[in-house]
């Protein structure tokens, strides 16, 4: 597996990419609490998903790049000119159906294929928490290059859960995949991106930051 600063590379790792391609057809079972997740997800799960969807729906219309948009489960609730980007063509096949008035593109989240300042905001859900430190730094620099702001949504740290771990993911066909994952408090997420808390839930956290691109000190 590729390395980044002594940690496993996630964003460009071929085995991780293959896992998400393979998972595309069943990914939303996690959000919807279906299949194996009907028992694995906590009792408050559906309430938390509703809070998350409401947060995304309430965002003002803007030119938004949704990085690692996956199946477009959250992307479909954004308003404005929307572009969904993901490394998985299979995920984008689902997302494209959900966001018919937007567009989707296969791309590298660490080298975004868009011009400087092309978007008002970048949104990313359940991607940031998979990145080791070096990849987080590259990602944040890329986002700042292309957009005036960033919203990060990820998985909340719960009692008894290791904040950073290798976790085994099992797909419906029984195949097993090993994935690096961090779980974050809302305070930690806001501090890491230099922003403010948007959501401090039991299952999800979100934070936002806006940059002044006109400042000479960057």
Question: What topology does this entry show?
Answer:
Layout: E1 3-4, E2 7-8, H1 14-23, H2 28-32, H3 37-40, H4 45-57, E3 64-67, E4 82-86, H5 89-98, E5 103-106, E6 121-125, H6 133-146, E7 149-155, E8 164-170, E9 176-182, H7 186-193, E10 196-200, E11 204-210
Parallel strand pairs: 3-4, 3-6, 4-5, 6-7
Antiparallel strand pairs: 1-2, 7-11, 8-9, 10-11
Gist of the model:
The chain is an alpha/beta fold and 218 residues long. Helices cover 29% and strands 25% of the residues.
| CATH architecture level-2 label | 3-Layer(aba) Sandwich
Which stretches are low in confidence, meaning pLDDT under 50 for 5 or more residues running? Answer: 1-7, 214-218
Count of DSSP strands = 11
Widest β-sheet, arrangement of strands: 5-4-3-6-7-11-10
The radius of gyration is: 16 Å
How far apart are the first and last residues' alpha carbons, in Å?
Answer: 34 Å
Helix content: 25-40%
Largest pleated sheet: 7 strands, mixed
The SS-based structural class is alpha/beta
Would you state the CATH class?
Alpha Beta
Query: What pattern of helices and strands is seen along the backbone?
Result: EEHHHHEEHEEHEEEHEE
Strand content: 25-35%
- Taken together, the total number of domains comes to 1
Per DSSP, the total helix count is 7
Nearest-integer average pLDDT = 92
Pfam family, one: Methyltransf_11
Protein name: Class I SAM-dependent methyltransferase
GO molecular function, one term: S-adenosylmethionine-dependent methyltransferase activity
Domain Methyltransferase type: 65-147
